[in-house]
Write a sequence for this structure.
């Protein structure tokens, strides 16, 4: 007779099996988190889908009862702590309720290492509108919706060894500004031959993102040549950005105050499907060249005497993977002495790939007179544009050696490289050796006791007074602490005023440099710290020093103009006018001080 186990034992067994299942899945975490479970119809809801391992084919739910107002925003974080790597990837959405009621945010799915993972459904209650919504946008929210890092890939389905470019662009909303960028996690481009195209300086350009006007900055440019067929992954690029976000506060000039937050943004991983090169029509001498090329074999001359040398060049030029294939070998008769080729390249890599030429340069020395043919050789490559193989044949070249000993043998064999030395006859074979070198003895010369000898001894002694004078002068300067501060601040003001002149035409950087120059001038002349600056204190100090009221007002007006112009349109003429005002007002105040 069978006994039925108690209910609590069955439940305990169920949870034990469930825990074993979670452990067997390798501690993979994929969950959904919401900012709140109850909100008003006029509030916003944030939902984050978080995973601790990278996955593919992320599929969000349909968000029934909500409208997506922003997202998905993707962020990636990787850290190494005590040699252990931690990884986190998040997809974030901001949702707006479309009606009151109770809703369920259903499951999102992700493919991690071939296994499908799902989040737990979340119940949300939407009530009537509230008087003071608790989801006012914070500085972090504004930064999230105003920054987007995008990896633009020129071709997501290239052939093996076909060039593709990846350009990383940071899109920035006009409502914010950025002050610094630092790289956190750089991709390694596994299974790609890669070359970085340096970005000389970061320059903002106008563009659009999701149909809205944005500025963007190109952060990184790469040229990749896939070295493996099938699905290849370009790892994500993650950067840290210091963002200046406007607040509701204003300064004493009436201008809006900005607050700074640090955000980590990621371009996300990109998948490239690399196609195999076609087998149909593939030449037997194909060595992996992919692109559009020209091929030729040339010699520096074709008529020469025995024991004279010439250069034979095997050259491929054009656009393609010039560094990733072998050049065909030159076929030469064995009666010619041939040295190992010298490889040369002249390649320029741009976003469209490698361009230029590569060559093998052979030194050839004929030992006997006669006519020696250099047979034609061929070079094959695959052109991704035409999707066909092409073969180029070089012309046959005949070398005419018109003077020298006759060859003992006339075997018509050839060689492809290395040094080949024939056994030669003839009584004048070594006539080029010079038997009388004509050496001349070198006259004796003694340095000791000469004028130069005594000058080198006296020079260090004469140098000692000069060193002591310089040392005393340096001590005097170092002891003048207050004077050093004034000189440093004055020098810094001149530096920033000069920097402002160089930035004419670039509004934000020009007015930043001009404002710093004015502040450092005051710091040098009035002996006050930057933290003590205020409009009232500047006016009081300048008037105490006897500066005219008109000049004081002009100086404070110029400071206010710098502050306002950084956040308002300004023309080239206006910038030149403000620069001249700064030069004039500093000169006038300096004379009165």
């Amino acid at each position: 007779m069978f006994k039925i186990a108690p209910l609590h034992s069955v439940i305990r067994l169920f949870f034990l099996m469930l825990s074993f299942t979670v452990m067997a899945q390798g501690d993979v975490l994929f969950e959904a988190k919401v900012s709140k479970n109850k909100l008003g119809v006029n509030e916003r809801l944030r939902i984050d889908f978080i995973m601790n391992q990278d996955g593919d084919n992320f599929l969000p739910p349909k968000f029934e009862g909500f409208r997506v107002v922003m997202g998905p925003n993707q962020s990636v974080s990787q850290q190494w702590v005590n040699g252990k790597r931690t990884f986190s990837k998040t997809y974030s959405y901001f949702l707006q309720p479309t009606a009151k009621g109770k809703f369920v945010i259903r499951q999102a799915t992700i493919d991690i290492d071939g296994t499908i993972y799902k989040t737990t459904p979340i119940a949300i209650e939407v009530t009537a509108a509230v008087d003071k919504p608790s989801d006012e946008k914070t500085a972090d929210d504004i930064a999230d919706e105003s920054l987007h890092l995008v990896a633009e890939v020129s071709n997501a389905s290239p052939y093996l060894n076909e060039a593709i470019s990846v350009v990383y662009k940071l899109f920035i909303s006009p409502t914010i500004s950025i002050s610094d960028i630092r790289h956190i996690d750089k991709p390694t481009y596994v299974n790609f031959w890669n070359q970085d195209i340096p970005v000389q300086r970061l320059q903002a350009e106008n563009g659009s993102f999701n149909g809205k006007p944005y500025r963007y900055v190109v952060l990184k440019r790469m040229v990749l040549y896939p070295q493996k067929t099938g699905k290849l992954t370009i790892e994500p690029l993650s950067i840290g950005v210091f963002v200046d976000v406007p607040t509701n506060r204003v300064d004493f000039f009436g201008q809006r105050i900005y607050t700074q937050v640090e955000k980590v943004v990621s371009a996300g991983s990109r998948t490239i499907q690399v196609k195999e090169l076609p087998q149909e029509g593939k030449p037997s001498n194909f060595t992996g060249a992919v692109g559009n090329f020209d091929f030729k074999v040339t010699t520096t001359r074709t008529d020469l005497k025995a024991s004279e040398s010439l250069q034979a060049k095997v050259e491929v030029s054009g656009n393609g993977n010039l560094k990733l294939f072998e050049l065909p070998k030159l076929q030469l008769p064995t009666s010619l002495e041939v040295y190992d080729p010298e490889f040369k390249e002249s390649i320029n890599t741009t976003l469209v790939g490698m361009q230029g030429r590569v060559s093998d340069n052979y030194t050839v020395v004929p030992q006997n007179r006669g006519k020696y043919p250099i047979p034609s050789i061929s070079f094959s490559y695959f052109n991704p544009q035409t999707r066909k193989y092409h073969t180029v044949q070089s012309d046959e070249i005949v070398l005419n050696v018109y003077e020298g000993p006759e060859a003992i043998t006339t075997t018509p064999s050839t060689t492809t490289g290395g040094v080949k030395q024939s056994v030669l006859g003839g009584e004048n074979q070594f006539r080029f050796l010079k038997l009388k070198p004509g050496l001349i003895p070198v006259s004796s010369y003694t340095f000791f006791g000469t004028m130069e000898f005594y000058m080198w001894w006296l020079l260090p002694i004469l140098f000692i007074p000069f060193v002591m004078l310089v040392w005393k002068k340096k001590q005097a300067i170092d002891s003048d602490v207050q004077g050093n501060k004034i000189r440093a601040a004055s020098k810094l003001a001149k530096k920033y005023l000069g920097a402002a002149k160089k930035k004419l035409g670039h509004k934000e950087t020009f007015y930043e440099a001009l404002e710093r120059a004015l502040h450092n001038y005051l710091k040098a002349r009035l002996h006050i710290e930057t933290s003590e600056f205020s409009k009232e204190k500047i006016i009081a100090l300048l008037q105490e020093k006897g500066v005219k009221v008109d000049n004081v007002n002009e100086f404070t007006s110029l400071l206010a103009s710098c502050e306002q112009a950084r956040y308002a349109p300004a023309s080239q003429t206006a910038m030149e006018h403000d620069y001249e005002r700064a030069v004039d007002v500093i000169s006038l105040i300096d004379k009165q001080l």
